[in-house]
Amino acid sequence: MQAIEKPAHCSAGEWALRNQLAHCYHLVDFFGWTETIFNHISARLPGPAHHYLVNPFGLNYTEVTPANLLKVDLEGNKLEESPYDANPAGFALHSAVHGARDDIQCVIHTHTTPVSAIAQKKAGFAHDDFYGAQLYGRVGYHTFEGITLFEDEKSRMIDSLGDKHILVLRNHGVAVGESSIERAFFLLWTVQRAAEIQVAAGAHGGEDNPLPASIAERCANLTAMLIRESGFATKFFDAMVRKLHAERGASW
């Protein structure tokens, strides 16, 4: 596939972010976590204006490129010409988080079958398996209010998220947010694995082996430290991009 050149008006930093975000879209498709053309991933651009990049609505995730990502403000207005619009259901969620949490630079929303099954259950995520333990104390829960289209829900979503980085949208799906695209993707992978294992364990006969809260907390704290204080998430993200390219060829 022919390489896409950086437009003259785009800074090197923004172009690097666009490439990384486009790779994230392709990885979510590669892992089978897409919901056809729906759901959304956003990355905040540097600067005080809280502008962010998001996918053009109507494209498959495999059709997202660095060049066709939309640049929008917190009201969802396009800041550059594009033949595409964004998914209106994404603005309330992404603009709420990017407007309120300076520590979150990337937000990923999915509703895979295992994740949606956990979101359906009143108890939410358990913390008795290797991946579930890593989520201990890191999950907020938001009551379902219908499709996230309306301005007035934004403050309630932020209250539900609090200082956490995982928001279970009850009866719906999940949103994760982190300080970089790589960290958000690794967190999403952890959430997805936790959901898969919890659903599989629930379908399997026999008594669960519960973990003490102290062990789960220690596991969650260690994982958070590894992500924030080492190149752990970057190594993982880069390895998955190499795997994607090896199996599918160049993305653009």
Automatic annotation (TrEMBL):
Segments forming domain Class II aldolase/adducin N-terminal: 19-199
Protein species of origin: Stutzerimonas tarimensis
Protein name: Class II aldolase/adducin family protein
Biological classification of the source: Bacteria, Pseudomonadati, Pseudomonadota, Gammaproteobacteria, Pseudomonadales
Family: Belongs to the aldolase class II family.
SUPFAM superfamilies named among the record's database cross-references: AraD/HMP-PK domain-like
Pfam assignment, any one: Aldolase_II
